[in-house]
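Everyone, carefully examine this protein record:
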Amino acid sequence: ILLPGRLTRWKGQTLLLDALQQLADVDFCCALVGSDQGRNAYRDELEKIIARTGLGDRAFILDNCDDMPAAYMLADVVVSASSDPEGFGRVVSEAQAMGRPVVAANHGGAPEQVLPERTAFLFEPSNATSLAQALRRALTLDAEARELLKQEAIANVQQQFSKDRMCAQTLSLYREVLRGNAYGDGGH
């Protein structure tokens, strides 16, 4: 299980650790990957939670990773557990681009980036039990379901989030603005 993101409370590391406690019967290893950016107290808090909850041999805090594609490829599941909605959290699309199942909070831009129950499992924001249930679904995919998810996830990102598509949509918006139709009311 990989949760990439700087160590800051709103990225959801404590929520993930709470959820992992509900998966005692599941074999997993969890990596929280990201810099604490000087937030030593928060990192210490996370380390204490890991020790106190008995996750010391299953959950690890790692600093920055210089090869995120490799980190994604080592993961069976990638988590985006932000407590605050993100407009476009890159983790969700990056994980799909690498063919990895995503478990993400059902708010912000995450639901718009995935195919629910096909490339990702959404959970109720800030709800550890809901996150644990989504993780369980993702972690227990059989080989055939995992391969289908991989293919759909990669195709979804290539079709929806390619640089060519972004450029074309941006230029289309600029043309609308120049025509005075950006708001469908003649620019008024």
Remarks:
- The mean pLDDT is 94.
- The beta strands are 2-4, 30-33, 59-62, 78-80, 102-105, 120-123.
- The CA atoms of residues 42 and 90 lie 23 Å apart.
